[in-house]
């Protein structure tokens, strides 16, 4: 989707970002309690455009293309990067980027690049640690500490553990979105 095709108006937008196969579409489906709304796939790179989902004619959820492992031609990746950068730096309706990090792994260099871009663009960012149900309690605590350390977050910075399987984290993500809608 090109910028001229983005929805018109001032409805708040909440974008979901992360590397390919981190669980963006699964999170969106769980957040909206609608299986299959956002297409999921075991193959990285399923989401290849910026997709807008109307949420109760009040806000938009925006599914951004994954970065990192997508098996697409280099010219397609370049086009993604141009449109994505333009969206993140120029879109006035963008209220928050929900940055997904796979809780099973330390943040990747691509994750750090994205967070740096969001910092530069001064876009509010919420970190969500996905696939948390795949970890034991001790792995979970250790990996969440590692995410905080690598991202250089304060101890009290909000990092929401999320599981598309169990629904853990849905409520806290909605709370942040609701707070921003009230501003």
Task: Describe the SSE topology.
Blueprint: E1 13-17, H1 24-31, E2 51-55, E3 59-63, H2 74-90, E4 94-102, H3 109-120, E5 125-130, H4 137-150, E6 159-161, H5 170-181
Parallel strand pairs: 1-3, 1-4, 4-5, 5-6
Antiparallel strand pairs: 2-3
Model description:
With 183 residues, the protein is α/β, with parallel strands linked by helices. It has a single domain (3-181), classed as P-loop containing nucleotide triphosphate hydrolases (Rossmann fold, 3-Layer(aba) Sandwich). The protein has five helices and six strands. It has helices spanning 24-31, 74-90, 109-120, 137-150, 170-181; strands spanning 13-17, 51-55, 59-63, 94-102, 125-130, 159-161. It has a six-stranded mixed sheet, with helices on both faces. Strand 5 (125-130), helix 4 (137-150) and strand 6 form a beta-alpha-beta unit. The longest helix is centred in the middle third of the chain and has 17 residues, at 74-90. It is globular and about 45 Å long. The chain starts with 12 loop residues before the first strand and ends with a helix. Residues 38-47 have low confidence and may be disordered.
In short:
The chain has helices spanning 24-31, 74-90, 109-120, 137-150, 170-181, and strands spanning 13-17, 51-55, 59-63, 94-102, 125-130, 159-161.
